[in-house]
Amino acid sequence: MKKKIFVAGIHQESNSFSPLMSTKEDFTIYLKGDKLIRQIAGVKEIQKAGYEVIPGIYADACPGGVLKLEEYKKIVEEILGLLPADGSVDGVFLPLHGALEVEFIGSGDALLVSLIRERVGGTVPISAALDLHANNTYTLSKMCNIIYGYRTAPHIDINETRIRAARMLIRALEEEVMPWTELVRLPMMMPGENFMTESGMGAEIMKMLPDLETLENVWCASYFAGMPWVDCAQGGGTVVISGSGDKTKGMEGARKFGNYIWDNREKFKFQGVSMEPEEALMLLEQGAEYPAFLSDSADNVTAGAAGDNAYMLKIILEKSKKKILIAGLVDAPAVELCKDKKAGDTFQVTLGGSIDKEKSVRVRLNKVQLVNVFYEGEKVTAAILKKDNITLLILAERGPITSEKVLNTYRLSAFDFDIIVVKQGYLTPDFYRIAKRFIMALTPGNCAQNLNLLEYKRIRRPMGPMEQVTDSKRITETYAG
């Protein structure tokens, strides 16, 4: 009889500074049964190795606000309902994120793994694949036998990481061992834009990870920069290793690696050009090669921000003369207003602050021209507006505009504009390839690059860079012996 491996996961990056609350409806990818088996990387490797896959639920959502507890419980109950309770499961494979924050309870990843562990018992290996921006808890590291993290930012190795984590699980079953996972914590936080992996310290750190995996009894090693826009008790950078047998050499190496990262913490900086918003716009206005991209970094929907801040639009209206595309601004009421109008109609509209009513800037525009309206069935999803030299892609629902291909679905092209303003931090690889110039604007908002601007209430103090950390016990802290 084939051994059985249960596969399930909840994948969402949270932003606790966003006024949004995520719900089950935000999980637009919701895979069950054969769809999960066909679409989740790592499953094919499990089957090829001769194991039977028991599919649970794989739920994936765009980064957003804290997930409502009742909504989280619905997904978890569905996952647990598909997990056999008769002791027949031999292994568990979990493609997770690691920075899922749930209302009232904190880490949704840790609780899910704990509930699965309670169901399968202490002799069944569990392997998890996590995002580089995971906020690892000690509970998560103790409940999982194997943790493997992405090594690229922007993330282009998601499938590769999941395949590696699945192969580690197969190894544990083949060798009939229960691997351990240990975590070394650093009291430092940084925006994801300071840990890009194609250059700088991010690239150096990732190149060093394979050396940790050569240490005695270490199977895999990962470094997690953490998700700084989650206000949680166990935020910050973590070095995580998994292996079997005596862990002494591995822990020595992990602490040494952690100390190296700590000693070089001042070197983690954004590898591109970043500056204040008005300065960034003026620089691009003055003879840059086009198309040029300007990132509204603090309203970054790919890191959970609302995406409804018209802060940059206000500056552009006052100061810009170039042909500009804003792609895109989230404003459902504005899109709905366009529903009953015709292309070419001019009207007045207020943009911004439809979600974050307290902090997002609102702008009233007169004599705006409607270019186009988009539908899915009878549901209006987006509108293209034009105001003088500015074209605006307005979205009814939050979602990232990540490539020329996505722009094309709205009959737009980056090549038709001088400057494209996007709600991102670092550019996606697709946009980076076509950008002649790129500047990250240090805008205010839910994803502020200056972490001192955010009101943290739960993180463990002191925490760099907000405060100086002088207690040596906090450096490379661990629960391991």
Task: List the topology elements.
Layout: E1 4-11, E2 21-22, E3 29-32, H1 33-39, H2 43-48, E4 52-60, E5 66-67, H3 69-82, E6 89-95, E7 101-102, E8 106-107, H4 108-120, E9 126-130, H5 138-143, E10 146-149, H6 158-175, E11 180-186, H7 200-212, E12 218-224, E13 237-243, H8 248-263, E14 273-275, H9 277-285, E15 292-296, H10 311-319, E16 324-330, H11 332-338, E17 346-351, E18 363-376, E19 379-387, E20 390-395, H12 404-409, E21 419-422, H13 429-434, E22 437-441
Parallel strand pairs: 1-4, 1-6, 2-5, 6-9, 9-10, 14-22, 15-21, 15-22, 16-20, 16-21
Antiparallel strand pairs: 3-4, 7-8, 11-13, 12-13, 17-18, 18-19, 19-20
Helix pairs in contact: 9-10
Q: What can you tell me about this protein's structure?
A:
- Helix 9 (277-285) packs across helix 10.
- The chain is 27% helix and 26% strand.
- It has two domains: 4-267, no CATH class; 273-448, no CATH class.
- It is α/β, with parallel strands linked by helices and 481 residues long.
- The longest helix is centred in the middle third of the chain and has 18 residues, at 158-175.
- It has a nine-stranded mixed β-sheet. Strands 3-4-1-6-9-10 form a six-stranded mixed β-sheet, sandwiched between helices.
- Strand 19 (379-387) and strand 20 (390-395) form a beta hairpin.
